[in-house]
Amino acid sequence: MIKKIMAFSLLAIAAAAICSFIPPKAPKPNVVIIFMDDMGYGDPVCFGGGPYKTPNLDRMAANGMRFTSFYAAQAVCSASRAGLLTGCYPNRIGIAGALSPTSKIALNNEEETIAEILKAQGYVTGMAGKWHLGAKRPFLPQQNGFDSYLGLPYSNDMWPVHYDGVPYADTAKNNRKNYPPLPLIDGSDTKRIIRTLEDQAELTGLYTERACSFIRENKNKPFFLYLAHSMPHVPIAVAKKFRGTSGAGLFGDLMQELDASIGQVLKTLEENGLSKNTLVIFTSDNGPWLNFGNHAGNTAGLREGKGTSYEGGQRVPCIMQWPGHIPAGTVTSKVASTIDVLPTVAAICGANLPKKKIDGISILSLLKGEKDANPRDHFVYYYGHNQLEAIRKGNYKLVFPHKARTYKQNLPGYDGFPGAQPNIEAPMALFDLRLDPGETLDVQAKFPEVVKDLQALADTYRKTLGDALTDTKGTENREPGSVN
């Protein structure tokens, strides 16, 4: 009996010793998405911007991966944000354009967002900044998976104020004069009214403060933070601390303030020992609004800008940082998009994909630097009310005939005022983006087989998602939410 007791005790001690050597379960990685508004491909210094400085973005690029062929889901505000948060081409889920304060549609609550799939895995979810997927309950962030929210429900120019910062007179010939005052929402309720450009100058700081507080408050839990800045979308406004600091005008000052905001977020992660376990994604919702001249960014030579399916409208800067996982100082020219963020984050965090079909694919193999990784074979450029305007596969991009906005026929405006942005008839053209990223040389006569291949691929999207340009109704489009 004594021998049995001793044997049992030895087994217990051995089992305890073995258990003591089992490494603790690794904490789930945190995710931070920093989403800019109207920041052009060429605006960060590490993408060719300046003469202002963006040291924090430059450091992110040095510590992570810089993407040179990264695309917004669509070249306009609401559609782009819908694509980022749901992993869908926005026309699949019925979101087009930039929703106004009185829009009768919104992101359908039945669509699952990044916040919702992570929340199901025990993540704390927070958002600060511009939402633009529904202006009131039940379509605000807290009804779409976010535990907390501070920000504007739509773009910062959707207010009854003229470009010079003066409220519109009743006789003004502008539909914005009838917009409601611009609300800053905390949770799901209006916290204060943004009335002036000086009020707007506080927004970047307010968003940053909320983002950093969220990190500190949830440092011991897995979290998802979505920081969606309202700028450099016009009207641009800069905190007093940063005015006149860049030597490159108000836009340069703003770029330095936005970069400093990113620096504060990164510093907060570092101070709380979270840097190595946090994936940070920086990108923009679309290209620059070029007709605003010195209050707009640049495309680094890409064609056209915001509101177009040319490269300057939809190719955006992107940097991803995750120490120990994403090789530092790497650059990829492989095609990827904001619609790929959700499935990539799901793969990293062990979350389930949405129950309904999405269009994004995981680019985790690309982030890890795996040899020959090329997860996204092609990308389609939809715009407007379900118009399939272009398709890219490899280095080739086929543009279909459509009406397109142009910034090339008129001088831009200056100091906050816009120039004209008329529409033109865009002809069918094939571009080799490796040799001609500015889309200047039509090579379709040289490569008829490439045209044929891309046409056939586009037809598969016309069948499923539709195409207003060819009067084709899709079989897989879903309805947006309906606002009463």
Account of the 3D structure:
With 484 residues, the chain is α/β, with parallel strands linked by helices. It has two domains: 30-376, Alkaline Phosphatase, subunit A (3-Layer(aba) Sandwich), CATH 3.40.720; 380-482, Arylsulfatase, C-terminal domain (2-Layer Sandwich). Helices cover 25% and strands 18% of the residues. It has helices at residues 2-21, 55-63, 77-86, 114-119, 197-200, 203-217, 249-271, 311-314, 341-349, 364-367, 448-465; strands at residues 30-36, 65-67, 70-71, 105-106, 124-129, 148-151, 182-186, 189-194, 223-228, 278-284, 318-321, 330-332, 336-337, 378-383, 387-393, 396-399, 402-405, 423-426, 429-432, 481-482. The strands form five sheets. Strands 8-7-6-5-9-1-10-11-2-12 form a ten-stranded mixed beta sheet. Helix 6 (203-217) runs parallel beside helix 7 (249-271). It is globular. The chain starts with a helix and ends with a strand. The relative contact order is 0.17. Residues 1-5 have low confidence and may be disordered.
Uncertain residue ranges: 1-5
The overall pLDDT average reads: 94
How many structural units, i.e. domains? Answer: 2
The biggest beta sheet reads: 10 strands, mixed
Helix and strand content put the structural class at alpha/beta
> Level of helix content?
25-40%
Q: Could you say what the CATH architecture of the largest domain is?
A: 3-Layer(aba) Sandwich
